[in-house]
Amino acid sequence: MKIAQIAPLYESVPPYLYGGTERVVAHLTDALVGLGHDVTLFAAEGSRTCANLVAARDQALRLDSSPLKSELASHLSLLYELRHRAAAFDVLHFHIDLLHFPFFEDMAHKVLTTIHGRLDIKDLEGAYSRWSHYPLVSISQHQRQPLPNANWIDTVYHGLPQSSLTFHSRPGDYLAFLGRISPEKRPDRAIRIARATGLPLKIAAKVDAADREYFERQIRPLLAQPGIEFIGEIGDADKSAFLGNARALLFPIDWPEPFGLVMIEAMACGTPVIAWRCGSVPEVVDHGVTGFIINSEQEAVLAARQVLELDRQVIRDVFVRRFSAKVMAQRYVDLYRTLTNRSDYVVPDIAHEYLVQQS
Question: Which positions fall inside the Glycosyl transferase family domain (predicted)?
Answer without folding.
Answer: 174-306
